[in-house]
């Protein structure tokens, strides 16, 4: 700040810059990113992506029961989920759009039978990302937190609950 103010007169002497520059520089410092801004993003879709044609296009997460992901994940998850609760904060979250296996740009929640929850984000089809999680668990892949946790517990992707 001091250096810019000290040498501001040099910029003011320029014939092109002089008409646009103010008499004194306005210096504003931008705050460093905090954990919230690093961990969360303004993640919105540019255009609505519709999932299955045989489901009503209302808000909620719908299981198709046809793809490998819907057939292998936890059967106790109802076919339609409109809200879920964080086990950590006990806060309820509503789902405000139609989400299915073919929906892209999704923030999803995986839950272990022990109650541990994992929040993930994908720009690809939801079933593509979830099938990767299931495959990582089956293959014993230890470099990812979800598969590592499931392998330590039971190594059965059928117990994986997706919301």
From TrEMBL:
<feature type="domain" description="GIY-YIG">
    <location>
        <begin position="103"/>
        <end position="163"/>
    </location>
</feature>
<dbReference type="InterPro" id="IPR000305">
    <property type="entry name" value="GIY-YIG_endonuc"/>
</dbReference>
<protein>
    <recommendedName>
        <fullName>GIY-YIG domain-containing protein</fullName>
    </recommendedName>
</protein>
């Amino acid at each position: 700040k001091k250096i810019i103010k000290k040498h501001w007169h040099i910029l003011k002497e320029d014939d092109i810059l002089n008409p646009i520059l103010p008499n004194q520089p306005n210096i504003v410092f931008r705050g460093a990113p905090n954990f919230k801004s690093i961990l969360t993003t303004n993640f919105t879709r540019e255009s609505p992506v519709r999932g299955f044609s045989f489901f009503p296009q209302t808000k909620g997460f719908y299981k198709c029961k046809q793809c490998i992901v819907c057939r292998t994940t936890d059967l106790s998850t109802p076919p339609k989920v409109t809200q879920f609760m964080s086990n950590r904060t006990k806060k309820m979250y509503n789902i405000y759009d139609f989400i299915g296996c073919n929906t892209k740009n999704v923030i999803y929640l995986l839950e272990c039978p022990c109650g541990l929850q994992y929040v993930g984000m994908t720009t690809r089809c939801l079933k593509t990302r979830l099938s990767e999680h299931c495959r990582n668990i089956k293959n014993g892949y230890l470099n990812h937190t979800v598969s590592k946790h499931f392998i330590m517990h039971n190594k059965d992707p059928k117990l994986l609950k997706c919301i």
